[in-house]
Design brief:
about 250 residues, alpha+beta, three-stranded antiparallel sheet, 8 helices, globular
Length: about 250
């Protein structure tokens, strides 16, 4: 009989759902999610989910909270976390320049052989960390991240919240998948740096990117503001937990 008071803003939730629905139709996507979260408090003002029906082909807002229960490989957006670890550990700064080849072959002549390329084809050329971000260079990112070391890089990813469910405590929320660093095999140590080899929900991803926006401090997502008992008594929930992941200067 307990009522729940959510952080969701009813008007904003509707507007975000309509904007997401329009965008999914525009790009003919299978679906989409949006998380609108307060940077400092972690309170979620909107969490919208759209899915396209396979039979009818029609996209519609769904009550399923896909942003919290479905995990996927993040891809290049993960470079935010990799290069944050690079800067925070002192491996490089925005003006550090390295030579970046256009392609690299890992684990040659083994079952894990894999060729990694940059999206923008190029010969070996000098690139600053700033250039690597601007041009989303896979190889530049992995060359810098490998200098952080697998163990420490894995610790940074955990600090950003990957591999563990958030404090939202949503039913059936996915924790995503992040293997311990000593279980990474083949090219995983390289591909993890640009977002392949671990999975994350949209909710985890929003909270992780928010860590950079929040000056390097992770703040747990929060959707329950208070409960109201059968006697009418209102009990507010505690503030979201926080932790330092990278320094304010690195962020």
């Amino acid at each position: 009989g307990t009522d729940l008071v959510l952080t969701l803003d009813r008007s904003l939730q509707f507007q975000v759902e309509q904007a997401l629905l329009a965008r999914v139709d525009e790009v003919k996507a299978a679906g989409g999610t949006v998380v609108v979260m307060d940077t400092a408090t972690g309170e979620i003002y909107s969490i919208a989910n759209v899915r396209r029906d396979e039979e009818t082909g029609i996209a519609a807002v769904t009550s399923a909270n896909l942003a919290a229960v479905e995990a996927f490989e993040p891809g290049s957006v993960a470079k935010v976390f990799s290069l944050s670890s690079v800067v925070d550990s002192g491996v490089a700064n925005p003006d550090t320049v390295i030579d970046v080849p256009g392609r690299m072959v890992f684990n040659k002549n083994t079952q894990w052989e894999q060729t990694v390329k940059d999206a923008e084809l190029h010969d070996t050329k000098p690139m600053s960390l700033r250039d690597i971000i601007v041009h989303s260079s896979n190889i530049g990112t992995l060359l810098l991240t490998e200098q952080v070391g697998d163990e420490r890089f894995g610790e940074y990813l955990q600090g950003f919240g990957f591999g563990q469910a958030t404090a939202l405590d949503f039913p059936d929320e996915s924790a995503g998948r992040l293997k311990p660093f000593d279980e990474w095999q083949g090219s995983e140590a390289a591909t993890m740096s640009y977002g392949y080899g671990y999975t994350t929900t949209s909710l985890q991803l929003a909270a992780a990117v928010n860590t950079v926006a929040n000056g390097g401090t992770y703040v747990a997502p929060k959707m329950l503001m208070a409960t109201i008992g059968a006697d009418g008594e209102v009990t507010e929930t505690p503030a979201s937990t926080t932790r330092r992941v990278i320094s304010p200067e690195s962020a």
